């Protein structure tokens, strides 16, 4: 996998949360806060870091928050976006990703890709020679977790040294991105999940338990995600049976720290991975988390084109 420097020409990509050096993440978060503060002052408070550029959103999976937050971010940064479902392209008829990327790289200024295979995003970035963003694959959801860390720090200060508990499908893309982030940002991640969903810990800061109670103990952040990810619909009944004990509910919250935050990356299936009661009680935290995708991705896109503004512009 390529790192943040991307290709030999110096093009930046964001394919994994491991692509962003932590010192640059700190600067990116600072600018995300400034973009958030500036937004009520639009258009005067807008930094046009993507002016005169066109970005393609190449999606093979359905999307609500990812599509909205990226399209609005690009527009508010002065750029244009083209939403391109895989099914509308020659990819659906067998054209290779390499050929698609080589053409798009000559026409567009950046690409945001949401698909099943991580390898497709990596291949596109190799051939297109334009900034490429992983907007979700089966292996990672780096934009989500980057924004989640920002959302935590916005409310509780640095995540370094904190305890994050993920409950549910420990093999999902969000959990995997959290695992990569743990060592880079210096927090402990405890994944409460059935053993069949475990994967090798990428660092000594990632721990596993089959007990949801142990995972929630003294947590600073309780986090859950859907039990049946896109492409796993055929496993729905089996997954729901296995994961039912890991439902995020008020009894588990009581095991965490008194000021624990509750996050869900959405969409939420209330009564399954989280109770409706707890979701509504923590809706403000969860919706703040969803909104922050816009602000963090504005900073991320500006970082990719090496144009973090020199002043907030308000």
UniProtKB/TrEMBL annotation:
Mind listing the UniProt keywords for this protein, alphabetically?
A: Transferase
EC number(s) recorded for this UniProt protein: 2.1.3.3
Q: Which EC class heads this enzyme's classification? A: transferase
Q: What are the residue boundaries of the Aspartate/ornithine carbamoyltransferase Asp/Orn-binding domain, all occurrences included?
A: 160-304
Instruction: Report a single Gene Ontology molecular function.
Output: amino acid binding
Q: Which GO terms describe its biological process?
A: citrulline biosynthetic process; L-arginine biosynthetic process via ornithine
Give the matching InterPro entries.
Asp/Orn_carbamoyltranf_P-bd (IPR006132), Asp/Orn_carbamoylTrfase (IPR006130), Asp/Orn_carbamoylTrfase_sf (IPR036901), Asp_carbamoyltransf_Asp/Orn-bd (IPR006131), Orn/put_carbamltrans (IPR002292)
Going by the entry's taxonomy, the superkingdom of the source organism is recorded as: Bacteria
Which residue intervals define the domain Aspartate/ornithine carbamoyltransferase carbamoyl-P binding in the entry?
12-154
Q: Which family does it belong to?
A: Belongs to the aspartate/ornithine carbamoyltransferase superfamily.
Cited NCBIfam families: orni_carb_tr (TIGR00658), PRK00779.1 (NF001986)
- Protein name as annotated: Ornithine carbamoyltransferase
Q: What is the source species?
A: Candidatus Methylacidithermus pantelleriae
């Amino acid at each position: 996998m390529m790192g943040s420097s991307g290709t030999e020409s110096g093009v930046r990509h964001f394919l994994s949360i491991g692509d962003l050096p932590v010192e640059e993440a700190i600067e990116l978060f600072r600018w995300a806060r400034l973009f958030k503060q500036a937004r009520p002052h639009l258009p005067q408070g807008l930094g046009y870091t993507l002016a005169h550029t066109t970005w393609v959103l190449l999606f093979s999976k359905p999307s609500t928050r990812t599509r909205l937050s990226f399209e609005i971010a690009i527009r508010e940064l002065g750029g244009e976006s083209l939403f391109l479902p895989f099914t509308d392209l020659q990819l659906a008829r067998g054209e290779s990703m390499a050929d698609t990327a080589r053409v798009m790289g000559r026409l567009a200024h950046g690409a945001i890709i949401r698909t099943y295979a991580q390898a497709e995003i990596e291949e596109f970035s190799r051939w297109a020679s334009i900034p490429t963003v992983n907007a979700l694959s089966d292996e990672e959801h780096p934009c989500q977790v980057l924004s989640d860390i920002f959302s935590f720090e916005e409310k509780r200060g640095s995540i370094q040294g904190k305890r994050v508990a993920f409950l549910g499908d420990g093999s999902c893309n969000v959990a995997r991105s959290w695992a990569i982030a743990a060592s880079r940002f210096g927090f402990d991640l405890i994944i409460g999940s059935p053993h069949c969903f475990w994967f090798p810990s990428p660092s000594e800061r990632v721990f596993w338990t089959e007990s949801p109670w142990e995972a929630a103990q003294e947590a600073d952040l309780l986090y859950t995600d859907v039990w049946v990810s896109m492409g796993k619909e055929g496993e729905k009944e089996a997954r729901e049976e296995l994961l039912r004990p890991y439902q995020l509910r008020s009894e588990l919250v009581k095991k965490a720290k008194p000021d624990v935050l509750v996050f869900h990356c959405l969409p939420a299936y209330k009564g399954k991975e989280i109770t409706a009661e707890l979701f509504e009680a923590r809706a403000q935290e969860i919706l703040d988390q969803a909104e922050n995708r816009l602000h963090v991705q504005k900073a991320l896109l500006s970082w990719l084109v090496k144009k973090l503004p020199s002043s907030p512009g308000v």
